[in-house]
Backbone:
C-alpha cells in the first residue's frame, strides 16, 4: 500500500497525510469505509478530482515572526492570487490538541463585477477569534492555520480568464489550489488534532462548504465544527441563474456530486452543505448572519433586503429542520456583515492598493457595520458565549433567531 507524502521544499521533514492511503492497485480508495470513516460517501466527490492538487504546491519562502510562520508558494506550482501575485498562508502553533482553520473573506470577482482582495498579506491578524490574547475568544489556545483570501472565487475556483479579450489574463482564480496548498501545510504541521474548527468570514464562509470536502479528506476521523460568518451559502433568492453563472466562470462544477440533485440548480449553495451533513455524522455547523446584510443583499446580490431575509430563513431553516442537533443559527436583525473579526481591516487588510473596488460599492462599504464576538448578541447571549457552546456542543448551543 502506497502512502502519499507531503514534502515541504524548505524543510527537511516529510510528513505522511493521515488520510492519503491508496489501494493496492495504486488508485485512491475513495468511497471505501476505511478511507472515509466516519463519512458515508464523500468519495463520490473526491473521485471527481477535487483532491488532485494535494502535495503539488511548492513553498518558495517561509519566515517566522511573533510566533507565526508565513509560507509563500511558488506561483509556477499553481497557487496564486487574482492578478498573479504569490499566495501566502500562515500557521500559529500553540501546542494545542485542537486546530482552527480560518478562511478569510474579501469579496468575489467575475466577468461583470469585481470587488475583491487581490494580494495575500503575511501573518495572522490579531482580531477577535484570531487573537490568542483575547480572554473571551473560545479559540484563543487553539493552533491556527490562516488562509488570506485573494482569488475572488471563494477558495474553490480553477479558472483563468481574459475578460477584455486583449490576450492578457485578467483573472487567475486558483482558489482550489490555494486552499489545497494551505491544507498541505496544515496537515503536515498538525496531523492528529482531536478537534477541528473550520471557520470562514464572508467569502470565506462560502468557502467552508467546498472546504469541508478537503478537510475531511485529510483528517478522516476528527470532529469538525464549521463556523460560517456572514457566508451561510445563501445565494440570490429567486435567481438560480446567478449562482449557475458563477459556477461556470469559476469552473467549480466538480464540487457538486451527481447524487446531489439540487446542487447546481438551486439559487443557494446550501444543498451541497445538506449533502455533506447527511453523509458525515461527525460534522456540525454554526451559522451567523444578519437579516439584511448590506454587503450580501446590496452589493453582491443587488436584491431587496426583504428578499435576502426570505432566502436566508428558508435555506438555513431547511438545514436546521433536517439536522436540529448539528446545524444551528445565530441570526440577528439589522445590516451587519461579519462579526468574528471585529474590524473591517480583517476583511480588506491595510493595503488598499490590494483591493479592486467598483464605484457602486463605495457607498455601501463606507457605511458597513462590522461586529465582534463580545458585542454581537441575540437576547443576552453574546457571540463569544454561543461559539463557546458550539465548540463544546453543550446544551447552551441553541438555534437563535431575532424576531
Residues:
Amino acid at each position: 500500500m502506497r502512502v502519499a507524502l507531503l514534502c515541504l521544499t524548505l524543510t527537511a521533514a516529510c510528513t505522511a497525510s493521515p488520510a492519503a492511503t491508496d489501494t493496492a492497485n495504486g488508485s485512491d480508495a475513495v468511497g471505501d469505509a476505511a478511507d472515509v470513516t466516519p463519512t458515508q460517501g464523500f468519495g463520490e466527490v473526491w473521485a471527481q478530482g477535487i483532491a488532485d492538487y494535494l502535495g503539488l504546491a511548492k513553498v518558495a519562502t517561509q519566515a517566522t515572526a511573533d510566533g507565526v510562520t508565513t509560507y509563500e508558494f511558488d506561483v509556477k506550482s499553481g497557487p496564486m492570487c487574482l492578478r498573479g501575485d504569490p499566495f501566502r498562508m500562515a500557521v500559529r502553533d500553540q501546542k494545542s490538541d485542537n486546530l482552527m482553520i480560518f478562511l478569510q473573506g474579501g469579496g468575489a470577482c467575475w466577468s461583470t463585477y469585481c470587488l475583491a482582495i487581490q494580494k495575500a498579506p503575511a501573518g495572522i491578524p490579531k482580531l477577535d477569534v484570531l487573537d490568542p490574547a483575547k480572554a473571551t475568544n473560545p479559540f484563543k489556545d487553539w493552533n491556527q492555520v490562516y488562509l488570506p483570501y485573494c482569488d475572488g472565487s471563494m477558495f474553490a475556483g480553477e479558472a483563468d480568464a481574459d475578460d477584455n479579450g486583449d490576450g492578457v489574463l485578467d483573472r487567475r482564480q486558483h482558489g482550489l489550489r490555494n486552499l489545497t496548498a494551505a491544507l498541505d501545510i496544515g496537515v503536515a504541521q498538525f496531523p492528529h488534532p482531536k478537534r477541528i474548527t473550520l471557520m470562514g468570514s464572508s467569502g470565506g464562509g462560502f468557502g467552508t462548504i467546498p472546504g469541508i470536502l478537503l478537510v475531511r479528506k485529510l483528517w478522516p476521523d476528527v470532529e469538525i465544527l464549521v463556523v460560517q460568518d456572514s457566508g451561510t451559502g445563501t445565494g440570490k433568492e429567486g435567481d438560480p441563474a446567478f449562482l449557475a453563472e458563477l459556477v461556470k466562470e469559476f469552473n467549480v462544477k466538480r464540487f457538486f456530486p451527481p447524487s446531489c440533485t439540487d446542487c447546481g440548480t438551486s439559487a443557494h449553495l446550501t444543498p451541497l452543505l445538506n449533502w455533506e451533513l447527511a453523509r458525515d455524522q461527525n460534522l456540525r455547523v454554526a451559522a451567523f448572519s444578519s437579516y439584511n446584510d448590506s454587503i450580501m443583499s446590496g452589493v453582491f446580490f443587488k436584491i431587496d433586503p426583504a428578499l435576502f431575509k426570505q432566502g436566508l430563513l428558508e435555506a438555513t431553516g431547511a438545514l436546521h429542520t433536517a439536522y436540529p442537533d448539528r446545524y444551528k443559527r445565530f441570526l440577528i436583525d439589522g445590516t451587519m456583515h461579519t462579526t468574528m473579526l471585529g474590524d473591517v481591516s480583517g476583511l480588506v487588510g491595510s493595503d488598499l492598493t490590494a483591493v479592486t473596488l467598483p464605484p457602486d460599492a463605495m457607498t455601501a462599504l463606507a457605511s458597513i457595520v462590522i461586529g465582534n464576538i463580545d458585542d454581537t448578541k441575540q437576547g443576552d447571549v453574546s457571540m463569544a458565549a454561543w461559539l463557546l457552546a458550539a465548540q463544546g456542543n453543550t446544551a447552551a448551543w441553541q438555534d437563535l433567531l431575532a424576531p
In short: The first helix runs from residue 33 to 36. Confidence is low (pLDDT under 50) at residues 1-39. The two ends are 56 Å apart (CA to CA).
